Amino acid sequence: MSFDLIIANGTIVDPVNGVAPGDIAIRDGRIAARLAPDSGVGARETIDATGLHVFPGLIDTHVHFGFGEPITEYTTETIYAAQGGFTSILAYFLSSESYDDIFDTEYAHAAARSHVDFGFHFSVASERHLDELGGYAARFGVNSFKYFMNFKGEEGRYLGLDGTDDGYLYALLERAAALGDITIVIHTENIELVNRFRRASIAGGGSTLRDWNLSKPAFTEAESTVRALAFAEHLGARIYIPHISTRLALDEVRRWRDRYDRVVVETCPHYLTHDLDADIGSIGKANPPFRSADDVAAMWEGLADGAIDLVASDHVPRKRATKEKPIWSASQGFPGTATILPVLLDTGYHRGRLSLQRIAQLLTSKPAETFGLRGKGSLSIGSDGDLTLVDLNRVREVKPDELGSFSDYSLYEGWTFKGWPVRTILRGETIMADGVVTGRGGYGRYLARGAAAPTAPVLQR
Ligand SMILES: [Zn+2]
Q1: How far is the CA of 191 from the centre of ligand 1 (A)?
Q2: How far does the centroid of ligand 1 lie from the alpha carbon of residue 340, in Å?
Q3: pLDDT tens readout for residues 278-310
Q4: What is the pTM of this model?
Q5: CA distances (Å), 186 to each of 99, 125, 325, in order?
């Protein structure tokens, strides 16, 4: 029996079976065997993972393209993902046009450049999107769609999106439930309350991250989360709540899960590391805002006890200059993929908040299960040979220029984290080793998802 690659002498972090020493053998890009240490089995190549932990390839389900430098971002941001130990990403594709008219072009840009496997969630905002939902699933293998509760009236115009309302959300969830195997990602925010609080804050001279938070207080997230859950339960739809940020909203999810459990909840690394007193000005502007220290504690509790299902970045690759403005006009969001794992290892594992197995679940098995990523997020035989080798004791300072994003800054610039990925392996090929990206653009494959998904060759037309 011969293998292409054996990862030998490492400690395996299996999201299902836990942490144990062992070797992993790969053939034809897939996991072909799990071996006892020192099995003596041969392979074309052996990587000695002594002292390292071997995770399934990490998956970031919340990435934004199109805000930095379109097209080339598919190169820079997937290099950045590989630097962070990520082998798969799901990006939000936001448009008011029919995806039937624009998908092929976007797909071609990404397929020619991506260093990691990639897929898309489509944002839906028009009646045509609603009519075409089933077709998108069948033709493009997209089984997740994003809805912004806050894009009422002109609020979404900065992203080119039409205004919507609760009637549209109702019709969308009804359609998703009827189609089956569809997840609706819902940005929960009561914008009618926010508009009022924002006017008051601006009139009162508000200018800080604390004021930004007060314009979108916890209740505006919690109330809209309850409304989303009520709609989902009534219509039997499966929903996903991205970037949860407050204890108030998370407590509502906990209560609701007793009566309706078809909800998946995500938080982002910055809600684990920053609160509203962070002294970084508009650099720290995000939506949702940084919250209170108690909210930060609640996010850690939710990750540990399972109320929060996964962590994703909400990565936005803009330049620092777009942030260096007054709080009300600065751009929202920041780069995040490549620092997710160091945040969870340093601030989570090393401080006793999360086990390694739990971190593997948050970043691999749960994202794969939630969005139907076949062959991903698993170390079982037959899964894709996607592995992230981690040095738990590697201490490294965050230097944005070393990570490869189009962005020229990081929230964590100058922070030192203990615990970093040192090798990223995608379908049996090393795409990053010791901070050097060795893969090539175009190696990343499209992730067609869902029962109705076409196979990849259908898309490579
Ligand atoms: Zn986002």
Answers
A1: 16
A2: 15
A3: 999 999 999 999 999 999 999 999 999 999 999
A4: 0.97
A5: 19, 12, 29
